[in-house]
Amino acid sequence: MIERPAAAVKELVENALDAGASRIAVRLDGGGIDRLEVADNGTGMTADELALCVLRHATSKLTDEALVRIATLGFRGEALPSIGAAARLRITSRPADADHACAIAVEGGAVSAVAPAAGPPGTSAVVRDLFFATPARRKFLKSPRAEADHAEAAVRRLAMSAPGVAFRLEIDGRVALEVPAQSRLARVAALLGAEAAAALLPVNEARDGLAIGGYVCSPAVTRATAEAQTLVVNNRPVGDPVLRTAIRVAYRDVIAAGRHAMVALFLEVPPEDLDVNVHPAKTELRFRDPAAVRSLVIGSVRRALGAAGGQVVPMPSWPRPSRPNSVTPPPLSLAPAPPPRGSLAEAQLAFAGAPAARRIEALEPSPDHPLGAPVAQVLDTYIIAVAADGSLVLVDQHAAHERLTHEAIRGQMTAGAVRSQPLLLPAVVDLPSGDVARLAARAAELARLGLEIEEFGPGAILVRAVPAALGSPEPAPLLRDLADELAELGEQTVLSARLDAMIARMACHGSIRAGRRLGEAEMAALLRRMEATPRAATCSHGRPTVLKLSKADIEKMFGRR
Question: 3-state DSSP call for residue 44?
Answer without folding.
Answer: coil
